[in-house]
């Protein structure tokens, strides 16, 4: 585990960013299912609801990225890590576009009869999966011991 060689203040920052990620998860869950707190005011998915889950997703990804950046602890950035960072951002943009497709005019529904369709759900889920794969790629691999012969 790479946390062993971090200073105490770095560990505190990792904890803070992990807390940001958890708060983002809470906002994401409330945005997806507002009935949990009794805030489902309309039968359709609205702009505020989408904004809530997109803000929660952003907070999760920013918290995860920042925590892993501290855990990397100055290690040189590999190609795998660079691809991971780009996948995190690409997944979020894909989720954003899939969620707001009807509002941007590229979806199949037109205002005022907007609904969150099956294709948009698939796009949101795909974007989240791409972002998680990016975080996994950005995570540092343990250093392999060099063998001397």
Description:
Helix content is 65%, strand content 0%. It has 149 residues and is mostly helical. Helix 2 (47-72) runs antiparallel to helix 3 and helix 2 packs parallel to helix 5. 26% of the residues are buried.
Average pLDDT metric:
86
Head-to-tail CA distance between termini: 27 Å
Q: What structural class is derived from the secondary structure elements?
A: mainly alpha
Shape: elongated
Integer-rounded radius of gyration: 19 Å
Number of strands: 0
Number of helices: 5
Descriptive key words:
149 residues; mainly alpha; 5 helices; single chain
What's this model, at a glance?
This protein has 149 residues and is mostly helical. It contains five helices and no strands. The chain has one domain (2-138).
Topology record:
Blueprint: H1 8-32, H2 47-72, H3 79-99, H4 101-104, H5 118-138
């Amino acid at each position: 585990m790479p946390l062993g060689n971090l200073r105490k203040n770095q560990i505190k920052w990792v904890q803070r960013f992990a807390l940001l990620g958890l708060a983002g998860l809470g906002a994401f869950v409330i945005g997806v299912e507002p009935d949990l707190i009794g805030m489902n005011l309309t039968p359709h998915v609205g702009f505020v609801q989408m904004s809530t889950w997109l803000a929660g997703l952003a907070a999760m990804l920013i918290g995860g990225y920042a925590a892993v950046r501290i855990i990397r602890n100055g290690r040189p950035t590999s190609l795998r890590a660079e691809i991971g960072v780009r996948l995190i951002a690409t997944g979020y943009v894909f989720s954003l576009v899939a969620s707001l497709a009807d509002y941007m005019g590229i979806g199949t529904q037109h205002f005022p009869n907007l609904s969150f369709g099956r294709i948009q759900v698939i796009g949101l889920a795909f974007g989240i999966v791409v972002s998680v794969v990016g975080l996994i790629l950005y995570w540092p691999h343990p250093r392999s011991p060099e063998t001397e012969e």
